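Re: the multi-chain job from yesterday

Posting the exact lines I submitted so nobody has to dig through the queue logs.
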Amino acid sequence: MSQSIAANPDRLFPADPGTRSIARDLMDRVRDLPIISPHGHVDAAVIEHNTPFPDPAALLVSPDHYVTRLIHASGVPLERLGPKAGAPAGAEAPAPDSRTVWREFCKAWPLFEGTASGYWLRNQFHSVFGLQHEISAETADASYDAISAKLLEPGFRPRELFKDFNIEVLATTDDPLDDLASHRAIAQDPTFHGRVLPTFRPDAYLNPANPLWSANVDRMIAAAGDGASGYAGYIAALANRRRYFVEHGAVSADHGVRTPATLKLDGGDASRLFDRLRSGQASGHDGEQFEAHMMYQMARMSVDDGLVMTIHPGSFRNHHQPTFNAFGADTGHDIPFAVNYTEAIRPLLQDFGTAKDFHLVLFTLDETVFSRELAPLAGFYPSVYLGAPWWFLDAPDAMLRFRSAVTETAGFSRSSGFIDDTRAFCSIPARHDASRRIEASFLARLVAEHRVSEERAHELIVDVVDSSPRRVFKL
Amino acid sequence: MSQSIAANPDRLFPADPGTRSIARDLMDRVRDLPIISPHGHVDAAVIEHNTPFPDPAALLVSPDHYVTRLIHASGVPLERLGPKAGAPAGAEAPAPDSRTVWREFCKAWPLFEGTASGYWLRNQFHSVFGLQHEISAETADASYDAISAKLLEPGFRPRELFKDFNIEVLATTDDPLDDLASHRAIAQDPTFHGRVLPTFRPDAYLNPANPLWSANVDRMIAAAGDGASGYAGYIAALANRRRYFVEHGAVSADHGVRTPATLKLDGGDASRLFDRLRSGQASGHDGEQFEAHMMYQMARMSVDDGLVMTIHPGSFRNHHQPTFNAFGADTGHDIPFAVNYTEAIRPLLQDFGTAKDFHLVLFTLDETVFSRELAPLAGFYPSVYLGAPWWFLDAPDAMLRFRSAVTETAGFSRSSGFIDDTRAFCSIPARHDASRRIEASFLARLVAEHRVSEERAHELIVDVVDSSPRRVFKL
Amino acid sequence: MSQSIAANPDRLFPADPGTRSIARDLMDRVRDLPIISPHGHVDAAVIEHNTPFPDPAALLVSPDHYVTRLIHASGVPLERLGPKAGAPAGAEAPAPDSRTVWREFCKAWPLFEGTASGYWLRNQFHSVFGLQHEISAETADASYDAISAKLLEPGFRPRELFKDFNIEVLATTDDPLDDLASHRAIAQDPTFHGRVLPTFRPDAYLNPANPLWSANVDRMIAAAGDGASGYAGYIAALANRRRYFVEHGAVSADHGVRTPATLKLDGGDASRLFDRLRSGQASGHDGEQFEAHMMYQMARMSVDDGLVMTIHPGSFRNHHQPTFNAFGADTGHDIPFAVNYTEAIRPLLQDFGTAKDFHLVLFTLDETVFSRELAPLAGFYPSVYLGAPWWFLDAPDAMLRFRSAVTETAGFSRSSGFIDDTRAFCSIPARHDASRRIEASFLARLVAEHRVSEERAHELIVDVVDSSPRRVFKL
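And the result, structure tokens for all chains:
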């Protein structure tokens, strides 16, 4: 059994000794700052009820499509990877038990060498679960038992870890019609001091290509349309629900769209298009136009109600239909494609790009837009911020490429700060740790190349790690 | 007040001590070579009349959209940044005075950490203006006074700096109907030894989407059409004006186009299209076809008259209409987009790609085309040269990415040499200094990795810094 | 005459001394492993007959369009570069003699500094031909004589070099109607122990845009259509010829297509489209649909017969028509363009992406798809493997960019292993040497940054160099 490299204090730092020494010093200045997580997918109810975590496989393997996808690529069917992944519709075979899933995972562990997921997992195993050695197929049962034991400890409940992890703010992602009862309960609980904020995520109500769109719209209008019907009721209801989220602490509205297209329609045209879509007589193009128009409307409402607008485009969701049919969404086959922001986002920016206090955070899975489009946009429009490297790009080398691509044009002040975007609660410290080490590494190189003074780097590392997310997300 | 890092002799060099030492040696071999600037935007009249520079803000802040854009992004309205930037159409408030603009700039100075503009400014402050310390909000008045004092010194006039900067050739960018009186006066002045060359830039006469196109065409035909009218007069006039530029020392014709599309139309079709466009009955598509055809014509004329053809595509100009309406063009919101050269440039290359002595320098703001398209094109066609990293890409990391992307396919012989492309006269030495340091850094890495011998690197550094621009621009 | 840097044992390794030392150690573990070359363009007949190599120019210059293209770019007409390159249709001037071509090449040698071709050539000169010094214009005759002398040595025949080079498997690329007599003869020869495998390459039979397509289809049906005619005979014949290839040792079918488009047509639609195309009444769009459908069919057949499917898209072949007219294909002007895999490959992956034992290796000349599309696809679909960096990207920096772009998403297990893709037999060791050094360099950095343990790196370097190509190509 080999010693885990997760313990190495210089992990992720550049090899050159001089640069490494600068990086160490910069990391020391931010290591103990609280975690601010303005966008992610943890379930607020888990914090509300302080629900114990399930077993190792159900916590760390089965629900994490970053993990199951690579094991699947190696030839293991998803049904062998556990409850969530392994519930094909109509399947009669029982889901495998947790220990079996864990053994499958440990056998597959070498696949994760060099990956971002491997880094996060190794660091969780070491720092959160206290494993001193690398996991392996041979020691699968031992690591299963060790983690299981940890999960039974009283200090290993969500609220205790929230504190241990030094989390200050954690945003969740929520359906617009969610009553936010968990968020309210947490906020009113005098024994809990973290901030758990909802995020308004209206995709299913804005995109006519969603098979449930029309039913969702019915529910939306019925719930919050102020008695109005049609497009007017729909717009009123969205504004009302946003206000409800703001009252419950939300700071942002998030949009997972296929492309960043935006479009301004006048009220009459929008209303007629809405009616046509509701009647089922509309084309796919009509649906795209409507969604683009609704992105414009969401920006308009953000200018009104102050919610930071975040856009996550460019993923072809559920690429493999048979897998989607059997296992549902979020099972590892969302595949990025090329995105163009410059023309697509222009209609929105024409009217709101310089609007007072409007914040628009633009994400991408297509790295080419970082230097070509996003840095120039964020370097002019006061509203536009560069979203942190997201999903496949939330990884050491990719984060360094991001900083290299955008900084020379947009400096350090136009970035969102780190976004962990995770549903894996126990991975949060490892993710923020990786991000801080990479920020320190990038800045250390600039210092070593005499492009930034050591004195200024001391300020910048705090700015990118701590001040940026507070400023950009109005925290 | 902290010491400026601009004084560090190792700035921009790689951190690894062995590689750095090689880079130092390479830099020593080119540090004192004259500056050759074959493309830029300095006003020839300033050299002709040896016009004193204005105050610090009017020299270094207000007219520089690289600088104002990032301050604008931080929330400062353009009208607070001075005369050029700050003259919204119909504004009644007086433009802010220079000292106020300078204070605004000094307050915003931290925004420029890590940016290319920050590097150039810091080096100007140190090397040109003699400031020993970093500028800051607290010392804004002191730095204003120090620079102002410098600007009053007799040695600080354009012609004296031209000599101090060791500039050998400086190309300007000029309207085709410009009489080039300043260039003539400079050339005939026995007391001035630099070469100041005009560049033929006919965009406004070639692109029917320009609202002034038809009026420009009228003026063009009237001025130089040899009495002919219509398309024939237009083509004759362009050829005549190019000849006039050649007679006044021009070595290149520059083309700022939206895309690199080229198209060969036969004479009759072109003439009919021209007439249709002039009649106002044509579509946007017609205009694009015509402009693409005119790029083909410009190449044909370059084969005839020897002017090097340079193409700068891929920028969405004036992205934010309200800002354009208020402040005009070149105010910081030209945003790049994806470009494809392979198919677009093919009609031109079919006929002129191997034409004797034809030089075609291709620029891009979309880095993806460097390895994918431009290096392969330049690695086959004797006419095609890789334009230096331009605009947002004229920055240390981006320049290293460029060399890494193109060299393995096209070697060192197919690049244009450095292009500063600037209207900021006092920034010219800092820009060339940065470029030379990056060339030295890239070559030093190849030497350290035993990919190029030290002996050959000594030749290559001189070739890329000095021989390339002379060869490519026929100087 | 300067000493060749090809002798340096640290060539291509990173400059940082600590990282270099790790790279050295990793390289030591794979230096002597046999060469596995699962895709390339060597002629099997040369191995069968153990044909002596021709003179230096005919071996190393004239037939290599990687070499002639850059000399051509410098202004040397192709006809001065020898028999293959220099045979313009209808030319009356005799082709230049080999010594003259060699002198031209030696004069042009400095153009290759920093290029991949330069690296391979320099290493051949040193390791294969025993030249101790850099070649140069001044020593052209001496190097010509030295290499010529080597070529006459009995140990310098293809079969002897095959052994000296430590080649275990060498795949060729073959026409589907080739009788594979050379492969059979080699396989049956008890005196030769290497494996020389054919590869099924049916482009000319699948792409209706090929002027010879219909004639090729006639020949295909006549040769192997089982007596059937039309689409049914065509499909049967392709399946039969694939089986013939499998029986002669083929492990893969290779597809050089313009785009990676795939399409599933039902049998009736496909048959009618085939008939329309054969009648000459079809449009270009019809041809593209048909080729896309045939890619789907090829995948289906691969699932049946086990041939690994490799796809090489994204090159605009024969970009300069006049050069193509004079000298034919493969003369240096195939230019890449932007490619999108995510949507294009989906129809094929819907049905075969998770098919048992199906292997699909995806190549690209457009680097942007590595992180954006290929790594996510290979990180989910068990069939999909990342093709090694190809053609212009088969170069040290580009290979490092590839590893950086894909590893964090897909790890090390989803890559094809190195593909030399060459027709230049003598360059094979240099190419594999470069690839192994770069793999060692990349892994060494991960070790130095504590992202991979030294112990695991020892396994990974063997896996990527040796196990990956065996596994992916079923060797």
